[in-house]
Amino acid sequence: xxxxxxxxxxxxxxxxxxxxxxxxxxxxxxxxxxxxxxxxxxxxxxxxxxxxxxxxxxxxxxxxxxxxxxxxxxxxxxxxxxxxxxxxxxxxxxxxxxxxxxxxxxxxxxxxxxxxxx
Length: 118
Known about the structure:
Blueprint: E1 4-7, E2 14-16, H1 18-29, H2 33-43, H3 45-50, H4 56-67, H5 73-81, E3 84-86, H6 90-99, E4 103-106, H7 112-117
Parallel strand pairs: 1-4
Antiparallel strand pairs: 2-3
Helix pairs in contact: 1-2, 1-5
């Protein structure tokens, strides 16, 4: 009998848009979203952060160096994280499983910023 269900966060429990994230980060530092996307992906910084290789503070410090300007940490945290929309059809399923006594587990490769925001 199955007693535990594992769920991923991104595009399972919530949908997200990296493009929105790039636009929002770009707005903070006067860059275009496409330029931010290239900067974060080409440098490997985004993947390293999302893989847990850097703390949020380290990501912030390195990002400021890369864009050559000071960026408020709280504003950056919001720009990076305000990219999620609840996957509404999952809510009744989660409630039904929980009401039947099943254990629900979140197993995700998300960053600390995204986890705390969601």
